[in-house]
Amino acid sequence: MERQQRRDNHIMEKLIPLLHSLAEKEERVWQPVFYPTMDNKGYVTGIKRDEGVQLMICMNQAFNLLPESLSLGISLLDKFLSACKVQEKYINVVSISCWFVAVKAVEESHPTAYEVVQQARGIITKAELLRMERIVLRKLDYDTRSVCSVEVLHVLHSLLRTAPSSETCHSNNLKAMTVQLLKCLSWHALGATVKPSLLALSVITVHLEMVSSYWESMAKRFCLILNADMEYLIGLNEQVGQFIASCYEQIKPERGPTPMDHYAIE
């Protein structure tokens, strides 16, 4: 027991400074992006941004890549769309290109441009992918560094595992929380406007609230580390919880076939 306690304390000594570092980096590099919800004269709206993210999700799943690649790709897409106006008809090309840049930055072994184009099935050509990749990198000053929600979630989850067992009862389902976090990132009203650290914290505390009576004490502890406001977190939790619930209740509307149907997820 004493050895385990020493081990947990050692882990916490490493993770808490890491979390502080991520929060400080977030303050420097992250900016919210507010998308128009109505017609934007042919330029990308929030709905079109979300469609682009859905395509990125499908591509990431098709190649069985890390959720960190997808999270970074979404972050780069929001950065790019905030830096320049993009017509709606180019959103698929831009989305795949941002995702491809992220994949190269995260994965040790990644698909080639040819493989990406083959998987996209006519949505983008190799020439378009390589050209847009260069445009994205130049617009971002070749800086793909970003604080991603998935990264923060993993750190918070590791910290959670060092807490007393009574506080972490049934709280180790990291895969489920990662899926829920990616769902939140796919909606512009959450993924583009809420700090990555707070969105990750909200997802994990919403989960804790359902499985542990100690969720509030853990949430306060994490808020203290991230310098976050507990009242704001509680309000965000309500929004996140409702959105996650709606995702599982959602029924696909009837519509004609689109290029996205190549990647339909049941």
TrEMBL record:
Q: Where are the transmembrane segments?
A: none
Pfam families referenced in this protein's UniProt entry, alphabetically: Cyclin_N
| Keywords, comma-separated and alphabetical | Cyclin
Q: Cyclin-like domain: which residues?
A: 54-138
Family, according to the entry, reads as follows: Belongs to the cyclin family.
The molecule here is called DgyrCDS3983
Extract the Gene3D superfamilies matched here: Cyclin-like
Write down the PANTHER family for this protein, in alphabetical order. CYCLINS
The answer to whether keyword Lipid biosynthesis applies is: no
